[in-house]
Amino acid sequence: MVFVLGKKCIISSMKVLQLNIWCGKLGKKIIDLVNTEDPEIVCFQEAMEFPGGRSFLFEDINTIIKKTGYKHYYFTPHLGYSLMKRKARMGLLILSKFPIIETESIYVKSEYKENFDLLDSDHNTQSLQRATVKCDSGLIHVLNYHGYHDHNSKNGCDETIRQCGFIANYVNNLSGKILLCGDFNLNPDSDSIKIIESVMCNHVTLNNFNNTRTNLTEKSGVSDYIFSKGNFENTSFKVLDEIASDHCALTFEFKE
Question: Could you tell me which CATH class the domain 13-255 is placed in?
C-alpha cells in the first residue's frame, strides 16, 4: 500500500506475489491478476522470453513487464529453443517496484540448454535466482526457484534433498530479510521441504493450505510456496482463487 506525502511515496506495507505462469498461456489473465493485486515484488516460474514480441502461443515477459509497469526486473533462462524463426527462452523472472541492487543466479542442476528438445533432453535444469532489492526499510533478498520435477512422485528424492540442502545453506549465508518463492514440485511433508523449514518459515503450512493447483489441471495438492526469514511482520497470506495458470497464485503481505 502506497501513500503519497508531498513528493515522497511512503509504503506502509509490502506484498509479494508468487506464480508459476505456465509459460504465459493465459497472458491477459496474468497481467490482470498482477495489476489487480499490485504487489511490490513478483516471482514467476516458467516465464517466456520471445524477442520481437508476443507469440500467439504464450505471453512474452517483455509484454507482461510493459503492461504491468514494473521498472526493475531480472530474468534467468533455463531452456532455449527455436520457434517461428526466433529463439524462445523459458526461465525465472523477478519483478520489483524497488531498485534491484544485486543479482545472482546459481544453476543447481545442469546449465542453460540453448537447443532444448523434450524428446532428447532432460528438462530438469534448476537455478536459484536472487535479486536483492532496496526498499524504504532496507534490503530484502528475494530468492526464486523452480524445483526438480519427478513425474512419479511429489515426495522428493535424493536430488531434491540435495537441492533443498543447497538452498538452506545459501539462505544461512545471507543476512537480513529473505524471501524464497517458487514451485518446488514437492509435498509439504516431504523431507526436502522440511530442510527448507529448518531455516525459514513456511507460510503455506503455517496457514494450513492444502492445495495450490487450479481446475485447469487434474493435479492437486501443494506444490507452490512462499518462505521467509528475518523480521517480517505478517499481515496476510493468501492462496488466490483467480485463475491465471494451472497453478494458484500466492501472496504474502507484510509491514514495511
Answer: alpha beta
